[in-house]
Amino acid sequence: MKRAIYPGSFDPVTLGHLDIIKRAAVIFDELVVCVMLNSSKQGLFSPEERVELIQLVTADLPNVRVDCSRELLATYARKNRARVVVKGLRAVSDYESEIQMAMVNAKLNAKLDTVFLYTRPKYAYLSSTIVKEMARYGADLSDFVPRQIIGMVRDKLAGSTLEPRERDIG
Ligand code: ADP
Description:
By secondary structure, this protein is α/β, with parallel strands linked by helices. Helices cover 41% and strands 18% of the residues. Bound molecules: adenosine-5'-diphosphate. Adenosine-5'-diphosphate (ADP) is lined by residues 8-10, 14, 16-17, 20, 87-88, 90, 94, 119, 123, 126-128.
């Protein structure tokens, strides 16, 4: 069985992420979307909330599982017997750091390979940071996040009194 891991912060999951998830789920037998927790990055949504949001928007995809980890990706992949990591590429600026990470992961776990899926042009501008900025200003989120989670994202940022820059935690 070909199991792949799609790692990220998903703080929160966006339509760009969901597009990559759906396409990877067609290519692999099982896709594990893993919320990777980075100790230096606190995030807006808790790990449990991020997992819950991804579960909500992937409920109709039977071969997609959602998990959360504080481990190194190379270690997580070994324990979960996955040999492929899926990453999405938006722009050339993503490329440099993603290639570097792919090489580090292969160094740490020689059995692990990384597959890149290009973004659909309509999602090329989209990131979780943009979603949070737009939600703070009460913008229409329907082009940014799956409709099932628009209310939850809006509620999370409602009543925010700090300036956007002060609250910008990635
Ligand atoms: P971000 O916080 O920038 O949205 P994540 O760490 O949550 O990023 O992203 C996880 C993975 O999804 C990364 O491989 C990233 O390049 C990819 N990704 C993020 N947004 C998009 C998008 N709009 N289109 C394609 N891939 C994306």
